[in-house]
Specification:
By secondary structure, the chain is of the alpha+beta class. The chain has one domain (6-125): Pnp Oxidase, Chain A (Roll), CATH 2.30.110.10. The protein has four helices and six strands. The protein has helices spanning 6-14, 35-40, 56-64, 100-108; strands at residues 17-24, 27-34, 47-52, 67-78, 83-96, 114-125. A six-stranded antiparallel beta sheet has the order 2-1-4-5-6-3. Strand 4 and strand 5 form a beta hairpin. The structure holds flavin mononucleotide (FMN).
Length: 127
């Protein structure tokens, strides 16, 4: 199990947006979310929670295959050789529309129909 901490946490705290990939019968499916939405819900070491407004295809994919990948990056965080770092975050995920986490998300984002709950399993620095 990997944890969101150190340099990876710095990137998550600075990222403007998050790219999210799930796997469908027809191949990869890419959607987005905002970095400030991720931060508003609090980044835990092993869990990321994002608001679900639409994510219908993402939800369909996750029902069949719970694997998910996130790409976060920021120029403001130092990479190994130069300014700018990004992380590929791999894990499992589900969309919940009821329960404590969904209620928290709906309170923070009244337009949300639920929460995308990601359990972090691996992080890989990109730069
Ligand atoms: C920067 C960015 C932020 C987004 N934020 C959200 C969001 O918070 N919730 C959401 O459901 N869709 C968000 N979207 C739209 C999704 O990428 C996607 O187009 C939409 O939810 C439909 O998902 P689906 O193809 O899985 O049905 C965002 C897109 C971008 C580019």
């Amino acid at each position: 199990m990997a944890r969101i901490e150190g340099n990876c946490l710095e990137v998550c705290e600075a990222a403007e947006f998050v790219a999210i990939v799930t796997h469908g019968d027809d191949g990869p499916h890419v959607v987005g979310n905002w970095g400030d939405y991720m931060r508003k819900l609090g980044i835990e070491a092993d869990t990321i929670v994002l608001p679900v407004g639409i994510y219908r295809k993402t939800e369909e994919n996750l029902r069949k295959n719970g694997r998910i990948q996130l790409l976060v990056a920021s120029r403001k965080v130092q990479g190994t050789r130069s300014p700018g770092q990004g992380y590929l975050i791999t894990g499992s995920a589900k969309i919940v529309s009821t329960g404590e986490v969904a209620d928290t998300v709906k309170a923070a984002f009244p337009w949300a129909r639920g929460a995308l709950v990601i359990t972090v399993e691996d992080i890989q620095a990109q730069l």
